[in-house]
Amino acid sequence: LKIVTLKETEAGERRVALVPDVAARLVKLGCGLALEAGAGVASSYLDSAYKDVSIETSQRDMVASADIVLAVNPPSLSAISAMKPGAILISLFYGRNHPELVKALRDGKISCFAMEQVPRISRAQAMDVLSSQATLAGYYAVLLGTTHMQKILPMMTTAVGSLRAAQVLVMGLGVAGLQALATAHRLGAVTEGYDVRPETKEEAHSLGAKFVDTGVDATGQGGYARELTEQEKAKVRAVLTDHIARADLIVTTAAVPGRRAPRLIDAEQIAKMKQGAVIVDMAAEGGGNCEGTKAGETVQVGPAMIVGPVNLPSCLAEQASELYAKNVLNLLQQIIKDGKISLDMTDEVIAKTLLTHDGKITNDGVRQVVE
Ligand code: NAD
Questions:
Q1: What is the per-residue burial (b if ≥16 Cβ within 10 Å, else e) of 120-137?
Q2: For this protein, what is the EC number (predicted)?
Q3: What is the pLDDT of residue 224?
Q4: Which residue has the CA at smallest separation from atom 34 of ligand 1?
Q5: What's the DSSP call for residue 6?
């Protein structure tokens, strides 16, 4: 069984889908491995670190001979076109955003596992790329925020008096938000968290943070949030405005599946913030939680600086790649039986993660958009 790994081409992408430790595990499973030359360099894994892996310079030849292709982002049309019918592709895909590539997968009879579709169930946690990457992103968002602040996070006693601890507010307490709270707490900040799912209150407390209770419960399906009604938005806003005004650093992470990122902070609230306050809007790529956020930019809006980072996991590429590759290995262990590919279509994880298979688009939502 030949498994090959592509070099990422997206601007700003530093991650790689295979790391040397995971390669060694796959070699032990009896797989033949190939890596596009230099694929791991940006995440600190030199070609020489991959033992028993063939380093290839022709992507086309490498891909044409592969049974399984690994990538972080959707590969190019030319890479997909070079794959043999029946081969497997494993990558993040977000099919709705790439209709032409999805058609190429369908027409080429490629079985594509879109890693963002792994169901959020306990059994699939070890394959959950969204969680592994969000964990690192949440940590990094706080560090990024501190580099734009003119204050430190912890209380500090000096010969000329004490410096007060900074106030950090995290809005949206999913995987990334909880990690942001934990990181700010470790660095000595006074922390507050807010979410529309009430069960996050206990999680915030366990991380040493206060919970801002707005009295709104917007728990949706599958443990995700739903969109708020206009009435609920007004109620939330009334409670949050003071907390926003008091914060030195705010990290926003709110997302609702399939929708534009909800607006949590508006221009009027920003105008009331402290001079020098910083907002890191982790939802920047999905439209932003904050009025004025620009994806990929840092902008000054009145008293506050708004940072709109894109692809935060890539900033921690070495470990983001390590976790990604381990998530992929756990999926591979589900689909490789006795050295052969065996797809059990009755398995919920396999069925839900597959985007295309056997000449069909198997994800209903993506099929409706693409066909
Ligand atoms: P996400 O990225 O979809 O959203 C981030 C957070 O934003 C969520 O906590 C959500 O409640 C919150 N949010 C949405 N609208 C908001 C608003 N208007 N105001 C404030 N907050 C708002 O979330 P995620 O990190 O992917 O996690 C979502 C859920 O999935 C959580 O319950 C998490 O525990 C669960 N989960 C389960 C598994 C598993 O069982 N394998 C794995 C990962 C996550």
A1: eeeebebbbbbbbbbbbb
A2: 7.1.1.1
A3: 87
A4: 174
A5: P
Q: Is the ipTM of this complex over 0.90?
A: yes
Among 12, 63, 85, 106, CA closest to 296: 12
Whole-structure pTM value: 0.96
pLDDT digits (tens, 9 = 90+) for 264-317: 999 999 999 999 999 999 999 999 999 999 999 999 999 999 999 999 999 999
Whether 225 lines ligand 1, by a CB cut-off of 6 Å, is yes
Q: Do the beta carbons of residue 192 and residue 169 sit within 8 Å?
A: yes
Chain segment 147-168, per-residue pLDDT in tens:
999 999 999 999 999 999 999 9
| Distance from residue 222's CA to the centre of ligand 1 (Å) | 10
Radius of gyration, alpha carbons of the chain: 22
Closest C-alpha to 167, from 72, 82, 289, 273: 273
| Ligand 1 site, residue 8, Cβ cutoff 6 A | no
What is d(CA 150, CA 300) in angstroms, rounded to the nearest whole number? 14
Residue closest via CA to ligand 1's atom 4 equals 255
Is the model's pLDDT at 94 over the cut of 80?
yes
Active site residues: 120, 125, 128, 131, 224
Assess whether the C-beta atom of 305 lies below 6 angstroms from ligand 1: no
CA distance 75 to 8: 8
Confirm or reject: Cβ of 129 under 6 Å from ligand 1. Answer: no
- To the nearest 10°, report the CA torsion of 244, 245, 250, 252: 30
Identity of the residue numbered 363:
N
Q: Are 171 and 253 in contact (CB under 8 A)?
A: yes
Question: Is 298 in a helix, a strand, or coil?
Answer: strand
Contacts (Cβ under 8 Å, ≥6 apart) of 242 = none
CB neighbour burial string for 349-358, b if at least 16 within 10 angstroms, e if fewer: bbbbbbbbbe
